[in-house]
Design goal:
alpha+beta; 2 domains; three-stranded antiparallel sheet; 2 helices; 3 strands; extended
């Protein structure tokens, strides 16, 4: 890919040593700037997030013909058990994704 860009642009392309984290760093900078300018509260959980208990629940959404597999991340260590419907998932929902329509997505 680098060689293709170099040939197409007729210039050397520099790939940083930690190129895998560039997107995460950029996203963090954008979030920080957004917070500074809008004073909107962040969802940052703090550096203690590594010690946090969480679990995932996967359900199939039957809301349309896509039949998406939706993954929900919940904070806490209480067992959830089997859940038939996404709307039945209770607790402190940290994130949810997997739907193609965005109906259940939480970022």
């Amino acid at each position: 890919m680098v060689k293709a860009f170099e040939e197409a642009l007729n210039t050397k392309v520099v790939v940083p040593e930690n190129h895998q984290t560039m997107g995460a760093i950029g996203a963090a900078l954008l979030a920080m700037e957004n917070h500074q300018y809008t004073e909107t509260p962040t969802k940052f959980k703090g550096w203690e997030v590594g010690e946090m208990n969480f679990q995932s629940v996967t359900c199939q959404c039957n809301g349309c013909s896509n039949n998406c597999e939706v993954i929900t991340i919940l904070e806490g260590s209480e067992p959830i058990g089997h859940v038939e419907k996404i709307s039945d998932i209770k607790g402190n929902i940290i994130a949810r994704w997997g739907g193609t329509c965005g109906r259940w997505d939480i970022a």
